[in-house]
UniProtKB/TrEMBL annotation:
Domain commentary: The DHHC domain is required for palmitoyltransferase activity.
Protein name per Swiss-Prot or TrEMBL: Palmitoyltransferase
Swiss-Prot/TrEMBL catalytic activity: L-cysteinyl-[protein] + hexadecanoyl-CoA = S-hexadecanoyl-L-cysteinyl-[protein] + CoA
Coarse class of the protein's main subcellular location: membrane
Topology with respect to the bilayer: Multi-pass membrane protein
Record-annotated membrane-spanning stretches: 23-43, 63-82, 169-186, 206-232
UniProt source species: Durusdinium trenchii
Amino acid sequence: MFGVKDDFPTPGWEERFPEPLKFLPVAFILAMIIGLYLIYTTFHLGPRFEEKTTRGSALLDAFVFHAVTAMLLYCYALCVFVHPGTIPDKEEDPSWDYDEAEGPQPIAADLLMNMQEMKRSGDRRHCKWCLKYKPDRCHHCRVCRICILKMDHHCPWIYNCVGFRNYKYFFLLLLYTSIDCLYIVANMLPTVRAGTQPTTPFMTMFWLMFGETLAGFLGVLVVLFFGFHIYLMSKAMTTIEFCEKSHSKGSFNASAYDRGFVGNLKAVLGENPWLWLLPVGSPPGRGVSFTMEESRLTQDMEAGRNLRRRAHETQTPNTAPKRRAHDRPNACGGTGSTGQSEEDSQSASGSEVADVGSSRDRRQVPNYGAADEGSPQVSASEK
Ligand SMILES: [Zn+2]
Ligand SMILES: [Zn+2]
């Protein structure tokens, strides 16, 4: 769809959008876009086209405005319809299949070099709902009811999760929305000022003021949110990882997946810098492994292996205090569209994403015990 190849298996339409009511926020966003579009073209561009003296500049404004708005709408459609990606199915790669009868398996030696996140016990992380082993950075979304690769957050405004395959589109959506809102505010300001004259019809004045205020309000919100995501991208972190790291009171500047500034941009926006600001191309890889030559963690791999061995030898799984999600302050609350209830309880508690592979991260993730495998019911009530 939209020129994006579904190279990998993704859930069908029925599975992805089972509740039509959840399209309401999407309809709300579209209504705002259409409303602002009509106000800008009817009360600002239209009158300037009629005046001979302003026709030239109006043409240029119309071109820029329509180009940015078209990109915004295209990115928005991609965000809604491109699936963020999920764990490979049996046919593609049976090694991710979790056998409930066997129970969680210790991480195999050949996987050790490619994986950073595992349980304190040294076992592979798994999802008890999807019955799959979880790749690094993968979390189960309770709204989408599926594991999401490199999950950032679930966004109700796009009725979709933001993850590995659609994060670039989400990032560009924030970029184009910021530009569009600020453009409307700056470009329409002289018309709004002129509209405050007593001779202006009331409805014209009302809609001009309304459009300017709405664009300004949205602009500030989206620019702040966009700034946060620029920061996250530069640090090679997802929103979930940011929340986990900020909660652990350590420095949340260091990500296990840091490849340096340009490398981090490439990991999100693609390898070709000429295409970074265009909604084309997908990030490199399948989204199940993020270990790179350059990543700082790989440098710690040797040390990490020793730590894992030690953790395995000294683990006492049932004596560690069990940590519950409600003990934890809601560090994710301020990211606009990130809802607290949308992450899986395992990732929210931070207990399962214990990164014993990194001496740096090992310090940052407190040991809450490896036995945090509560039933789905318990997990739901914990939120
Ligand atoms: Zn899952
Ligand atoms: Zn989701």
